[in-house]
Structure formats: structure tokens, C-alpha cells
Amino acid sequence: MPDVEPPPAAGPGILVVDDERQIVDLLTRYLAQHGVRSSGAYAAEEALRIVAADPAICVVLTDVRMPGQSGLLLAEELLRGRPEAQALEVVLITGAVAGEPGVEAFGRRAFDVLSKPFRPSEVASVVARALAASEERRRRARLAAPLQATAPAATESGRPPGALRPSQLPEATLGALRAPLLPILAAAETLATAPRLDAAEARMQAERIRDGALQLLALIEAAGCEPDPASAQSAA
Question: Which of 33, 37, 151, 182 is 20 to 30 A from 209 (CA-CA)?
């Protein structure tokens, strides 16, 4: 293992992977001195174990050419099927002068590519941006999770339970249902975005929403739409 062990804090971190121990030790020490929780691995197999055991690792900085499993294969395995809640950014290190085979094919899946020789300050700059990108992706996944949890479950047909089949809604009915939505949306937009509304104006917009909603309800009841039979059976 490298000389510099990651601090016990469980904050976001980076893993440096290279079969050249001097590079791993240099970068982990430099990043740790600049406040980045960093650890190192000298082979792809070791890196896989470390990432699996530490979900707070947000960035993997890996050399492309390594004995055994290459950095590209390591990156592919790390990113395959990885949920956004554990988003990981990969930064590739290449020593090839004319371009590393496979790096271009990896495309935009890599956050960035660093060419040897590089300055530690250059690595720190890329790492800071990669950490920020990973944390932002994870933050968005956390915000989206409650919405996904409360979304109606889909049936085998791909529609939520109780949804109407398209054939049950003729175009004329769809057009009639759309009409009351326009004043509802306009009134709601006014209430949501107008900087200042007096009581009379707010009441008028609320009445428009109420009237439109009542009109929609009457149209739906007049249409006499029946639920999807498969959904009705499952509900029973």
C-alpha cells in the first residue's frame, strides 16, 4: 500500500491507480496536502476492491497501461451499470506521445485525459473539477429519488395503474379536454410568477383555475372513459 493512508473522514475522495509506485505516492501525498481525501492502488484488481469498499470515492485517476488489467478495462468495469447516486468520474493518464489506443474510443465517458509528464498542480486542478462534477451528479440523484419513489408503478403495458388506453380517447375528446387547460395554465403561471398581485387579482386567477378544473371534470365524466381492464383486474 502507498505511504500516505487516507484520513478517517468519510468525505468524497479520489483513488490514484498506477503500477508506478512513485507516481501513486507522489500524487496521493500532494492531494492530501491540498485537502483531498486520497488513496492509492498499484493494480486494477486492488482498485476494484477499494472502490467497492468505499462508496464515497468520487474520482478514479488511473494510468491506461498497467500489467494485467489495463486502466481502460478498469474504467469500463467501474462505470458499467453504476447508479447516479454513486456517480464516479474517471480521469485517464497516458504516457503515449501519439495517443493511446482505445482512449479515443472511450470517448466522453472519461472526465479528462492527462498526458505524462504532468505537473501535480495540473492533476489537482482536474481532480477538483472531477470531484465537483461527481458530487453534483450524486446531489441530483438524491433530489430525484423521492420523485421516483412516489411515481405511479407501471403495468406490463408500460402505463400506470388505472391509466386509460389511447383507443378510449378519440381525438375529438382529447381536443375538448385540452381546451380548459389553457386558462388553468395561464392563471397558474400568473400566480406563480407575478411579482405582486393584489387580493382581487389573485382571487380572479384562482376562480379561473377552479372554473377550468370543473369544466375538465365535467368533460371527463361525459366522456365515460373506462379504465384499462387489466388495471381494473389488478386493482380488484
Answer: 151
3-state secondary structure 160-226: CCCCCCHHHCCHHHHHHHHCCHHHHHHHHHHHHHCCCCCHHHHHHHHHHHHHHHHHHHHHHHHHCCC
As a whole number of angstroms, the distance between CA 95 and CA 118 comes to: 10
Can you tell me the distance from the alpha carbon of 92 to that of 204, in angstroms, rounded to the nearest whole number? 60
Each of the 236 residues of the chain gets a pLDDT tens digit; together they read: 444 444 444 578 999 999 999 999 999 999 999 889 999 999 999 999 999 999 999 999 999 989 888 898 999 999 988 898 999 999 998 876 556 666 666 666 888 888 888 888 999 999 999 999 999 999 888 888 776 666 555 555 555 555 555 445 555 565 666 666 767 776 776 777 666 667 777 777 788 788 777 777 777 766 654 444 554 444 44
Omega of the bond prior to 117 within 30 degrees of 0, cis? Answer: yes
Distance, in Å, from the CA atom of 96 to the CA atom of 103, rounded to the nearest integer, reads 10
**64 with 100: CB under 8 angstroms?**
yes
Q: In whole angstroms, how far apart are CA 13 and each of 77, 78, 81, 102, 131?
A: 19, 15, 21, 26, 8
- Torsion region of 58: left, alpha or beta (phi above 0 gives left; psi -120 to 50 gives alpha): alpha
